[in-house]
Amino acid sequence: MRIFDPHIHMTSRTTDDYQAMYASGVRALVEPSFWLGQPRTSPASFFDYFDALLGWEPFRAAQYGIAHHCTLALNPKEANDPRCTPVLEELPRYLVKDGVVAVGEIGYDSMTPAEDVALATQLQLAAEYALPAMVHTPHRDKLAGLRRTIDVVAESNLDPEHVLLDHLNETTVKVAADSGSWLGFSIYPDTKMDEDRMVSVLRSHGTDRVLVNSAADWGKSDPLKTRKVGDAMLAAGFSEDDVDKVLWRNPVAFYGLSGRLQLDVPAPEALHEGNSILRGGE
Ligand SMILES: [Zn+2]
């Protein structure tokens, strides 16, 4: 089973995770820039983080045979902090970089006027820089947040076909699908979507334009959830081709809209032979 995790925050994960992901079939991933938990107090903190997502983290992933790409943006939560909003002015110089495959994660957290501005501005940047957009839908007030997101996308210059609406569930999948956008589902260990609910959504909705991710980060999460969904699909009677479509071809098609996917990372053994395996502190 080959797996592309289209949303995972590896900065918060260990090398054991990289190893286990590789062993489970993960060969490529996208790391969206997001809220680090600790509030940032200046744009410079974002730029160091963006540079890490473009340099250090792809290097670390490659040691484990995994192709790493990122999406960059001012995240919805910090869009409310005036100390952070100047990031929007500097974002264009990052969006031209090779490792960036979308603008994201953008969207709504609390649906404030500041979030309206950040979302509309960044959808416009995505259109200008010919990148797709990865849009987070709020965990609270989900359906209202999704509807408002779809309205803002419709008012933007970006095609809905170039937008991924993430963190969907049974209550939001139909409205999201009707908008013409791609559909992202984050699978969590004990709350929100789990693998069995995901299989039910795939049964009723089908596999078209569906992406499944672990959204693993610094909270309780599981970087192997993509594999567990693949196994659950097979157990439920989906074919290997269905699994490959959801876990590989769909994310490749969506992020391939950037024209920047590089999926040819050598297997880790080849790297180990050269004795270049990464060790902490060296
Ligand atoms: Zn995320």
From TrEMBL:
InterPro entries: Metal_Hydrolase, TatD-like, UCP005295
GO molecular function list: hydrolase activity
Gene3D superfamilies referenced in this protein's UniProt entry, alphabetically: Metal-dependent hydrolases
Keywords: Hydrolase, Metal-binding
Pfam families per the UniProt record, alphabetical: TatD_DNase
Family that this chain belongs to: Belongs to the metallo-dependent hydrolases superfamily.
Protein name: TatD family hydrolase
